[in-house]
Amino acid sequence: MIQFTGIVAVILFNFLTNTVAVFICPQVNGTFVNRDDYRSFYQCINGINMLKYCPSATQYYSTGNATCQEGPAEWNYVYDLTGIYTVTANVEYRHVYQRDYDVYWTSDTPTVANTFIGRHINETHIVGIQTRLVRLTGCTSVLNARMVATGSKSFCQHTSLAVFGRACDLVAPYSSDLCISQ
User: Fold this and answer.
1) H or E element at residue 14
2) Who has greater pLDDT, 115 or 6?
3) C-beta of residue 16 within 8 angstroms of C-beta of residue 10
4) For the chain, give me the number of helices (H) and strands (E)?
5) GO MF annotations for this entry (predicted)?
6) Which sign, positive or negative, has the C-alpha torsion 135, 181, 150, 80?
7) 162 has which bridge partners?
């Protein structure tokens, strides 16, 4: 019995420490911004919340008029990431261009060409798609990518193979993390 109790305690501890914050409706009915992704909002009906997304990826939920609109009205991105970043000495440089809430980057080496197209979803997070072309084989991978601006001219990025992507020469688990600054 003591051994079983210990296992239950470990499971309960892991459950409690790994929980994710859940949105609780501040009012029984209404719509409320999702601070993690301003392209979405919570609609509360009788105290039950539903996460809903704006119809277009370029629209953001506005708390001012409680609708989705082009371009955010109540917030702005914190850092401009435009610049040239050294990824690996004398081999790979990342050219980042930011225009308003859109972020693009390219990176070329003799063996691989990368391109990223993304958009801010809140003050510091950017989500998008990265393509990776292996020059020797012509194999192209499509990756889901998330960038987090961590300071002026610095960011961290996480990529993972998209559901419809090809692994090409990527190594399992087909994901990577990278932090760089200029």
Assistant:
1) helix 2-17
2) 115
3) no
4) 1, 13
5) chitin binding
6) negative
7) none
Q: What is the mean pLDDT of residues 1-25?
A: 50
Q: What is the pLDDT of residue 21?
A: 64
87 and 180 in contact (C-beta within 8 Å)? yes
**CB of 75 closer than 8 Å to CB of 61:** no
First to last CA, the chain: 58
Q: What CA–CA distance (Å, rounded) separates 110 from 147?
A: 25
Amino acid identity, residue 62? S
* Tokens encoding 100: 């308003």
Longest Cα separation, the chain:
63
What value does the mean pLDDT take over residues 133-153?
94
- Residues in the chain, total: 182
pTM confidence score: 0.79
pLDDT score, position 14: 40
Domain positions in the chain are 18-70, 83-181
Confidence of residue 2 (pLDDT cuts 50, 70, 90): very low
Residue 46 scores a pLDDT above 80: yes
> 83-88 and 67-70: which strand pairing?
unpaired
